[in-house]
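input
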Amino acid sequence: MSRLDANRDAARQLRITLVERPVRTQEEARAALAGLRKGEVDGILSLPSVALNILGFVLETAAQRAIPTMFFDPFDVERGGLASYSANYYQVGRQAARLVDKIIKGAKPADVPVEQPTKFELVINLKTAKALGLTIPQSVLGRADRVIQ
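output
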């Protein structure tokens, strides 16, 4: 299941309307974000893209229009996003290194089982929450792996 399919499924289960704005270029990303208005959306979920660097567009639009953002990478939260929830990339790298080590030592790649991430991190930016006028419940902050002041 792709990330987008997982998000669609989660939105259906939560009875949330997911408005998709697929973009292929930075210009399309800028145009899609420029059309967003506060009150028309409750937040922006930015899927990672190796082909497009739209983080700046998302953060700029979200700040200008006071729209909360959710990302898959803590890096984006450190730059002003509200929150992220994703696999711990350090642990994923360690898993990958362990698998490569097995292959280097003679294991056939087809015989090495696929491993899923086991550690996920919730990162919350309280400075951004305050700028948006949001109060993050203590129960959520208590679950966060990292809170950016």
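quick obs: The chain has a mean pLDDT of 87.
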